[in-house]
Amino acid sequence: MATASLTAEYAKSGKAGCKGCGKSIDKGELRIGYVGKANFGATAWYHYDCLWADTDSLKSVDASKSAKVLVQNYDSLKGEDKKKLDKDFPKFCKEASTKASKAEPKPKSDLAAEYAPSAKSNCKGCSKPIGKSTLRVGFPGKANFGATAWYHYDCVWKESVLLAPIDTSQSLEETVDGFEKLKNEDQTKLSSDLKKNCKAAAEKEPPLPPKMAADYAKSDKSECKSCATKIAKNALRVGFTGKANFGAVAWYHVDCLKKCPQEYSKGIKADKPLEELVDGFDKLNKDDQKKVEKEVKALASPTGAPKRKSEGEESAKASPAKKGRK
């Protein structure tokens, strides 16, 4: 697990401001900071008590490691301050990690189904209104602003390009958002029609390669979807378009790309030019192009990368199970 680099010391002056509360840190006061997280690669300093309130940064700290390992200059601290760190670090880091895992957005389903709450929506297939309480089926994220593109039940099966990539081996609860709320007869009908039409669409339409992007981060606000640490400004990042909230790019450190959910990389072909696979590839420098090419090709190769878990499996594995004694 990648982890943030931390340091601690007694403030040399009263000039530094706390990144948490914005107030000055008094001379001689214990301060803790994230190395390289302030402007120009400087340390972002915090009052001791303010550090624990920044759960967004703390979630990237490996709580399984001791404060002695995590914090630079630990050995130069007073005994009582070491004891405080030893006690507070695992406690607050674990709380931040737990909070972050609970806040993780639910993975986007391939389809959605519901009974129309009003008659205001129009079918994206025939453009006619969908009657109130009528069963409608749609593709999440395919309408404006990441909304669901809704269809009449009979119209949705004509969208072979969108149906072809759907993996019907998964449960309907995973594939169709809202499936469990449908009437029994509609669940049965949808289950049968989905498998039949997705199979026909896959035979008709070749699988579309995933849309990918690569660039140099414009700020340090984006976060790697694998290791959950910030991607530094101007650092190389690679991502999958439409896989984050509101249809945004799900960004990764280039070295973390191999850990992306398997369904993200489905359809990548090793013989396809990178300029066609990855938007922005041609704007990278030559060395970074080689790095991106290596990692993207590995996703397409059955032997080039270790078998990756699906997004559902990754989120379900919130904490490793403890092995029982034999």
Query: Per DSSP, what share of the residues sits in E-state strands of 2 or more residues?
Result: 5-15%
What spatial order of strands do you see in the largest sheet?
3-2-1-4
User: What does the radius of gyration come to?
Assistant: 24 Å
Shape: elongated
Order of helices and strands: EEEHHHEHEEEHHHEHEEEHHEHH
Q: Give the % helix.
A: 25-40%
Largest sheet composition? 4 strands, mixed
The number of strands is 12
Catalogue the unreliable spans.
303-326
Structural class: alpha/beta
Q: How many helices?
A: 12
Mean pLDDT: 84
Distance between the termini: 29 Å
Task: Write up what this structure looks like.
There is one protein chain. The protein is of the alpha/beta class and 326 residues long. The strands form three sheets. It has a four-stranded mixed β-sheet. It has a four-stranded mixed β-sheet with strand order 7-6-5-8. It is elongated and about 70 Å long. It has helices at 48-51, 55-58, 67-70, 79-103, 153-156, 160-163, 172-175, 184-204, 262-265, 274-277, 286-300, 311-316, and strands at 6-10, 30-34, 44-47, 71-72, 111-115, 135-139, 149-152, 176-177, 212-216, 236-240, 250-253, 278-279.
Set down the secondary structure blueprint.
Elements: E1 6-10, E2 30-34, E3 44-47, H1 48-51, H2 55-58, H3 67-70, E4 71-72, H4 79-103, E5 111-115, E6 135-139, E7 149-152, H5 153-156, H6 160-163, H7 172-175, E8 176-177, H8 184-204, E9 212-216, E10 236-240, E11 250-253, H9 262-265, H10 274-277, E12 278-279, H11 286-300, H12 311-316
Parallel strand pairs: 1-4, 5-8, 9-12
Antiparallel strand pairs: 1-2, 2-3, 5-6, 6-7, 9-10, 10-11
